[in-house]
Design a protein that fits this description.
There is one protein chain. This protein is an alpha+beta fold. The chain is 30% helix and 41% strand. The strands form 3 sheets. Strands 1-3-4-7-13-12 form a 6-stranded antiparallel β-sheet. Strands 2-5-6-14 form a 4-stranded antiparallel β-sheet. Helix 1 (4-14) runs antiparallel to helix 3.
Length: 291
């Protein structure tokens, strides 16, 4: 599965605050590599910096649409034309609505750089990008009930169900035949139909849970099985539910082996789940740019 975040970071280079500071363990880099004030001033006076930023925004938006469906708005601020060509820029803000990317559906996604100096060098020959400084973005996303169910009906999430079913089938215990999510009274409901081969029957199981954030991760907690016809080990249900957690699956498009995603808050309200946090890529990370 492609990783949406790194795609956004890399294609920014090919185009050449809500957070006033940074995270507790994240320090904004100094602006030691910027071009001289004369060069920056000249870019401003001649308008080349403005034109370069607009061109970069247009190219970036076009590239994003190759990776995801949705309505996107891109704002890129640069210091000068020469800085932008070198991979140095002031800020990047991306807002997407009604997004479909990597089998994940999101009603809203906002990404904004944490610092006012960002430096990523693109190697066209080797198709790699090197993060010359620590790079951070704040994210905020809204996920509706329809988003969750569209995601759960897509192939990517169904692979998770198949993994659980492979275990259940091997012991002839159960087989999940259907699953869907509901948001009711500020709680998350996971509804799934389970076939029990040994008694030749199917049962609908409804599990209610809260959304909790702990150590930067999102969990479904305080799990309760609503059905009274079946006795289930709540510990095992909670473990399975977090493995199948469609919220965590949705956030996976923002993760990468080189990027650390930290969830700060998650709230269910008005039939949607609002989640926000940060994404950090450390200095000297080299990523491969696939065309």
């Amino acid at each position: 599965m492609k990783k949406f975040l790194i795609t956004l970071g890399i294609i920014t280079l090919t185009a050449a605050s809500a957070y006033a500071g940074c995270e507790e363990d994240f320090m904004c880099p100094s602006q030691t590599q910027l071009s001289g004030s004369f060069s920056r001033g000249l870019s401003t006076i001649t308008g080349t910096n403005f034109l370069a930023s607009k061109t970069a925004q247009s190219i970036l938006k076009s590239q994003i649409k190759k990776e995801a469906r949705g309505d996107f708005d891109v704002k890129l601020k640069s210091y000068s034309l020469s800085d932008l060509k070198a991979g140095r820029f002031k800020s990047l803000e991306i807002t997407g609505k009604n997004i479909i990317a990597d089998d994940v559906y999101l009603s809203l996604l906002k990404l904004k750089t944490l610092c006012d100096y960002n430096y990523i060098v693109y190697d066209k020959k080797n198709k790699t990008a090197t993060f010359k400084e620590d790079f951070g973005m704040a994210f905020a996303t809204s996920i509706t009930e329809d988003d969750l169910n569209n995601t759960m009906n897509a192939n990517g999430y169904k692979e998770l169900i198949d993994e659980i079913n492979s275990l259940g089938k091997s012991y002839k215990l159960f087989n999940i035949t259907q699953s869907k999510a509901k948001l009711r009274n500020n709680q998350f409901l996971y509804v799934f139909q389970v076939a029990f081969p040994f008694i030749n029957t199917k049962q609908n199981i409804v599990v209610s849970s809260d959304v909790n954030v702990s150590n930067g991760k999102l969990y479904l907690s305080h799990t309760r099985v609503i059905n009274d016809f079946i006795s289930v080990d709540l510990g095992k249900v909670s473990d399975m539910l977090n493995y199948l957690n469609p919220l965590s699956f949705s956030l996976s498009i923002l993760e990468n082996k080189d990027a650390t995603l930290t969830v700060k808050d998650a709230v269910i309200k008005d039939n949607r789940i609002d989640i926000d946090g940060t994404i950090i890529v450390l200095k000297d990370v080299v990523t491969e740019c696939k065309e």
